[in-house]
Structures are given as structure tokens and as C-alpha cells.
């Protein structure tokens, strides 16, 4: 009988194979992508594990260079990398995380807008890397009447906004004389994002003015408003003061020690009631954890998931959290929470990947230890500031250092080449003032009450819900 079975091409029944371990990574930013990258190397070709990455976008965005896209120094495609190309041996699901049950070990992912649908993904282990979202401090005005700088769409929308304002001002001055508020640009927030955005806006506007003969440099106003004593507080007062002086030297109006009271259609309202008339406000005043975290039954620290030194969520075996959405103790700094920086997130991703693999083998993971090497910022006009290994740098050398280090950090050789070529062309030619989204298209996707509104309202018009930065 056995010989008959073999001759017929039949195989004797074998016991059921063990089920593959399902590892879910929620978020495709620095933390999630680098965790996925290292898990792919360790588990991607194995038959006993399946790793799935869930992200709102199907690409990884190199966010430190967002302001360069807004300033037309880089093409948008230069700082995005396909997650499917980066992670060919992992499963990928594009969508928004709308629900997470840590007890049932399931995640709900939706895509397709209002007419879309949801999927329920079961897991054995989950890595929470859901990032953060813009913090409007509960104020409707900034949320409804400001642009943000968190996503690639934000950078492209800001770039188109700047060009649209120049076109409007140039045409109006030919007929009736445009009011200065059309070419007044206000950035709220003096951290890295705010300072780099203000410098980029200033560079772009003044670099584009040769194409707009009816607008004079004196008509343009770029303002940076910061609630702290000095801009870039992360780098210390000395470099912060240098940055402020340089920005002023470049033509940016810097106001420190002022917290914006409100943002309206007419402009920015300061604490003393003064109105700064403007049609363009960029809100970069900070970030907050995703709203979904509030629904989770685990312990929080200022809204972020509290984890141990191995980035495990206490009380929930097989759950790790890292990046902006987690409060990770910094063992090199007395156990205080790690700052939400990209250099911490990518290294946390590497350690989490090793810990997930160890847990699948029944072994304990390793603690996360990383001493920050330094921080850098580009402040416009090919100038920068940096603090590296305790040493302070400023000016053109710091700017060159910024570009060199971030170029080295970009994943994949083709991405490095694209960015290097764009930078080389930017040195040789003037700013590109082509609108990638025309006024008619903008009218179709943005609420008419405010010509270029926040990302939140754009999503509402398109039938999408506001999303956290994954």
C-alpha cells in the first residue's frame, strides 16, 4: 500500500506544523522602520515567523529634510523611500491604526476614507512606534488656520502656499497694490522644526523675488515667534543666541518670550492683543502623543506609554513601545525619558528588533543605552549651528556638517545620490517657482473660508480623519 501511494505521487500525512509567530510593527517612521529593517534581516527569510509593518504611508519619510522640500532645495521624491523596496521580505499594510486591543492582541487598520473598510490583524508580539502629532494645545484657531510641518504633504502644501502668495502679491501690485500681509509669513515655535522652517521660508521667498518684479524685499516679512527665552533651547543659550542673531541678520523678525494667544483668518493674535496680519501661519510649537494612546490600559507618562529599560510595556508580555509615543528611560542620563529625536528612535528600533528576536527564543532582552552624540540645525543662507560631543559649531562649517551627517544617515545608495544631485543643482541654479498644485486644485481640496488651511481640514474635505504621525 505504501508503494502504491508513492507511485501515485501521494505523501504520507505529517503532523501539523507549528503556527508562525506573528510580529506586528505599528508605525513607519524612524522607530518603526528601523525596527522593521533589523527584523527583516533576522526573521525575514525564516518560516517560523511573519513580520508585518503597518504604516499610514507606503514610504519612509526622512523628516529632518522636510524644510528643504518646502524651500525647493530638494525634490519631494528625494527624501522618501518605498517601504516595500526597503523591506522586500516583510509583509506590509498601508492604512490608519484605528483600534488596538492589548488583551485580545489585535489591531484594527482602516484605509480608503469614508467609503473604505477595516482589517483586524492578530499578533503574538507587537511593536508600538506610532510617533506623534502636532500639538495645538487644545486651541481651535491654530488647528483650523495654520499649516504644519509633519508630513511630506505639509511640506508640499507650504511650498505651494509660498508661491501662491507671491503670485497673488505680484499681480495685485500691478493693479491696486497688494497689502503687505499677503507676503507676511509667521512661524510659531522656536525649536528645530520652527527655526529650520523659518530659515527655509526666508531663503525661498527672497531667492524667488527676482521672478516677481512687482514685489520688493522690503515688502516681505518673515516672523518667528517663540515662547521661550531663546530659540533652539536644546542647544543651549549660547547657540540659541547666535541663531537668533543670524536669523535677524538674514531678515527674519524673531520674537522670543511670547506665546501666541490665537490664530484667526486675519492673522496671529499676540498676548497683548496685537494682531499680526497674515494669510500664512506655520504651527511648529511642539508635538503630542497620538490620541489613540489614551485608550490603552497601560501606564502613561505625560501621555506617552511608559516602558522599562528594554522598552517592554509592563503588564503586557510581547508588547514593546519606542520612539515619540513612548517614555523610554535614558540610562545614561539618570533614567530621565529619552528625548524624542530621530537618532534615539532609530537606535531604539535596532534594540527592539534584537529584543523581539530574543523573546521569540524565550530569552531576556537587553536594556537600551545610548548617549546622544549631538544635535544640528540648518538656519538658512547656508549657515547652521551644532553641538557635537560637547563641542559647539556655527556658521557655514556647521551647515556643511549638517548636510554631510544627514546625507550619511539616509537609507539606500540611490537616495543619497538623489539628494546629493539636488543639492548640487541648488548651488548652481535659482529657486524653482513652479506650483505643483494649482489654485483650482487647491480650491477643490481646501475649505473656502481660508485659502490654504491646515492638514486637518484638508483631510476632512477629502473624507479622511486626522491621523497621528506614524
UniProtKB/TrEMBL annotation:
Keywords linked to the UniProt accession: FAD, Flavoprotein, NAD, Oxidoreductase, Transit peptide
Reactions catalysed: a quinone + NADH + H(+) = a quinol + NAD(+)
Protein name: NADH:ubiquinone reductase (non-electrogenic)
EC numbers: 1.6.5.9
Domain FAD/NAD(P)-binding, residue spans: 22-349
Molecular function GO labels: NADH dehydrogenase (quinone) (non-electrogenic) activity
ATP-binding among keywords: no
Amino acid at each position: 500500500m505504501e508503494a502504491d501511494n508513492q507511485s501515485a505521487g501521494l505523501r504520507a500525512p505529517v503532523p501539523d506544523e507549528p503556527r508562525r509567530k506573528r510580529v506586528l510593527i505599528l508605525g513607519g517612521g524612524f522607530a518603526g522602520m528601523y525596527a522593521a529593517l533589523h527584523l527583516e534581516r533576522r526573521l525575514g527569510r525564516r518560516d517560523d515567523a511573519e513580520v508585518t509593518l503597518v504604516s499610514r504611508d507606503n514610504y519612509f519619510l526622512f523628516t529632518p529634510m522636510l524644510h528643504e522640500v518646502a524651500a525647493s532645495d530638494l525634490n519631494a521624491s528625494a527624501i522618501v523611500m518605498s517601504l516595500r523596496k526597503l523591506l522586500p521580505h516583510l509583509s506590509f499594510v498601508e492604512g490608519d491604526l484605528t483600534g488596538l486591543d492589548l488583551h485580545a492582541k489585535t489591531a484594527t487598520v482602516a484605509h480608503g476614507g469614508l467609503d473604505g473598510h477595516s482589517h483586524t490583524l492578530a499578533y503574538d508580539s507587537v511593536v508600538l512606534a506610532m510617533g506623534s502629532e502636532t500639538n495645538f494645545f487644545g486651541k481651535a484657531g491654530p488647528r483650523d488656520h495654520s499649516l504644519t510641518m509633519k508630513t511630506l504633504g505639509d511640506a508640499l502644501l507650504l511650498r505651494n502656499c509660498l508661491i501662491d502668495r507671491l503670485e497673488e502679491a505680484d499681480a495685485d501690485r500691478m493693479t491696486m497694490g497688494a497689502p503687505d500681509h499677503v507676503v507676511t509669513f509667521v512661524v510659531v515655535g522656536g525649536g528645530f522644526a520652527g527655526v529650520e522652517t523659518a530659515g527655509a521660508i526666508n531663503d525661498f521667498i527672497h531667492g524667488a523675488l527676482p521672478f516677481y518684479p512687482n514685489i520688493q524685499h522690503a515688502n516681505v516679512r518673515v516672523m518667528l515667534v517663540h515662547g521661550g527665552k531663546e530659540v533652539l533651547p536644546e542647544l543651549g543659550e549660547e547657540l540659541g543666541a547666535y541663531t537668533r542673531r543670524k536669523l535677524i541678520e538674514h531678515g527674519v523678525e524673531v520674537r522670543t518670550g511670547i506665546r501666541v494667544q490665537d490664530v484667526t483668518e486675519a492673522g496671529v493674535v499676540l498676548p497683548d492683543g496685537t494682531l499680526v496680519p497674515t494669510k500664512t501661519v506655520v504651527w511648529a510649537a511642539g508635538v503630542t502623543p497620538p490620541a489613540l494612546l489614551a485608550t490603552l490600559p497601560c501606564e502613561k507618562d505625560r501621555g506617552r506609554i511608559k516602558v522599562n529599560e528594554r522598552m517592554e510595556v509592563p503588564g503586557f508580555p510581547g508588547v514593546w513601545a519606542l520612539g515619540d509615543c513612548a517614555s523610554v528611560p535614558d540610562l545614561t542620563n539618570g533614567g530621565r525619558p529619552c528625548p524624542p529625536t530621530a537618532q534615539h528612535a532609530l537606535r531604539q528600533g535596532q534594540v527592539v528588533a534584537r529584543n523581539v528576536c530574543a523573546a521569540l527564543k524565550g530569552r531576556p532582552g537587553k536594556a537600551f543605552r545610548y548617549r546622544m552624540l549631538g544635535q544640528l540645525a540648518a538656519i538658512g543662507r547656508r549657515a547652521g549651528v551644532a553641538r557635537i560631543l560637547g563641542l559647539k559649531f556655527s556658521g557655514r562649517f556647521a551647515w556643511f556638517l549638517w548636510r554631510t551627517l544627514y546625507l550619511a544617515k539616509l537609507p539606500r545608495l540611490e537616495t543619497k545620490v538623489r539628494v546629493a544631485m539636488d543639492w548640487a543643482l541648488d548651488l548652481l541654479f535659482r529657486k524653482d517657482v513652479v506650483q505643483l498644485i494649482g489654485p483650482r486644485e487647491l480650491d477643490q481640496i481646501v475649505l473656502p473660508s481660508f485659502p490654504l488651511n491646515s492638514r486637518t481640514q484638508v483631510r476632512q474635505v477629502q473624507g479622511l480623519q486626522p491621523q497621528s504621525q506614524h
